[in-house]
């Protein structure tokens, strides 16, 4: 399958699952080396990160707990308008080493919302692991600790990422065709 259509858009094969897995393995090695001996709390961000989190965590050899959270958009009363609130944190992450697992960091705005709220739970430290990152689109200063793969500022689907809710189930990564 070299080309796919999702809703009204055409995508072409960009990175095979096999290739993606070499990056996931490299990332798992880094996590295992740098967090050895620690008690780690992994927090996957739904929906997008479910496939990456699953592949990554099967290769993680650390004492750890795993949970998933979701971001709910709601109209805030603040002038800033839309705020994305984290839902689903029940475990006590106070004083824990937290690793946030994201599918993709684009502008970084979503991640910024997540980190600010997680800080409120007073973890010992927060590290970030993302499968994909678009450095050209990134607007934040926050350092990304573990990046699987940097990609250009173009829209991609598959490996958990969607277009209008579709395409998350594709093993490979597809890129929007330039017309
Ligand atoms: P950010 O807030 O701009 O960093 O965007 C983060 C969110 O936008 C991700 O968690 C994705 O849900 C979505 N997103 C960003 N880029 C893409 C893409 O290329 N394909 C699919 N979703 C994307
Ligand atoms: Mg997402």
Condensed summary:
The chain has helices at 17-34, 50-57, 109-119, and strands at residues 3-6, 9-15, 39-46, 63-75, 82-87, 97-105, 125-133, 146-150, 156-157, 173-176.
Kindly describe this structure.
- With 179 residues, this protein is of the alpha/beta class.
- The protein has a single domain, classed as Rossmann fold, CATH 3.40.50.
- It contains three helices and ten strands, in the order ββαβαβββαββββ.
- Helix 1 (17-34) crosses helix 2.
- The chain is globular.
- Bound molecules: inosinic acid and magnesium ion (MG).
Keywords:
single chain; 179 residues; alpha/beta; Rossmann fold; six-stranded mixed beta sheet; four-stranded antiparallel beta sheet; 10 strands; globular; binds inosinic acid; binds magnesium ion
Please specify the SSE layout and strand pairing.
Blueprint: E1 3-6, E2 9-15, H1 17-34, E3 39-46, H2 50-57, E4 63-75, E5 82-87, E6 97-105, H3 109-119, E7 125-133, E8 146-150, E9 156-157, E10 173-176
Parallel strand pairs: 3-4, 3-6, 6-7, 7-8
Antiparallel strand pairs: 1-2, 2-10, 4-5, 9-10
Helix pairs in contact: 1-2
The structure holds inosinic acid (IMP) and magnesium ion.
Magnesium ion binds at residues 48, 103.
Please report the distance between the alpha carbons of the first and last residues: 19 Å
Q: Total helix count? A: 3
CATH class: Alpha Beta
The string of secondary-structure elements, in order, is EEHEHEEEHEEEE
| Strand numbers in spatial order across the main sheet | 5-4-3-6-7-8
Overall tally of domains:
1
CATH fold category name: Rossmann fold
Q: Mind telling me the C-alpha Rg?
A: 16 Å
**Which ligands accompany this protein?**
inosinic acid, magnesium ion
Query: What is the correct CATH architecture?
Result: 3-Layer(aba) Sandwich
């Amino acid at each position: 399958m070299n080309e796919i259509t999702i809703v009204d858009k055409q995508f072409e094969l960009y990175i095979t699952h096999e290739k993606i897995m070499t990056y996931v393995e490299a990332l798992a090695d880094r996590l295992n080396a740098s967090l050895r001996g620690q008690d780690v709390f992994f927090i996957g961000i739904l929906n997008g990160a479910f496939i990456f989190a699953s592949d990554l965590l099967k290769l993680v050899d650390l004492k750890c707990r795993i949970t998933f959270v979701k971001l709910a958009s709601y109209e805030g009363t603040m002038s800033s308008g839309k705020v994305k609130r984290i839902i689903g944190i029940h475990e006590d992450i106070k004083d824990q080493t937290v690793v946030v697992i994201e599918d993709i960091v684009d502008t970084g705005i979503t991640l910024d919302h997540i980190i600010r709220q997680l800080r409120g739970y007073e973890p010992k430290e927060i590290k970030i692991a993302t499968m994909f990152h678009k450095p050209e689109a990134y607007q934040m200063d926050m350092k990304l600790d573990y990046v699987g793969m940097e990609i250009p500022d173009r829209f991609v689907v598959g490996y958990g990422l969607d277009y209008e809710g579709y395409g998350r189930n594709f093993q490979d990564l597809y890129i929007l065709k330039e017309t």
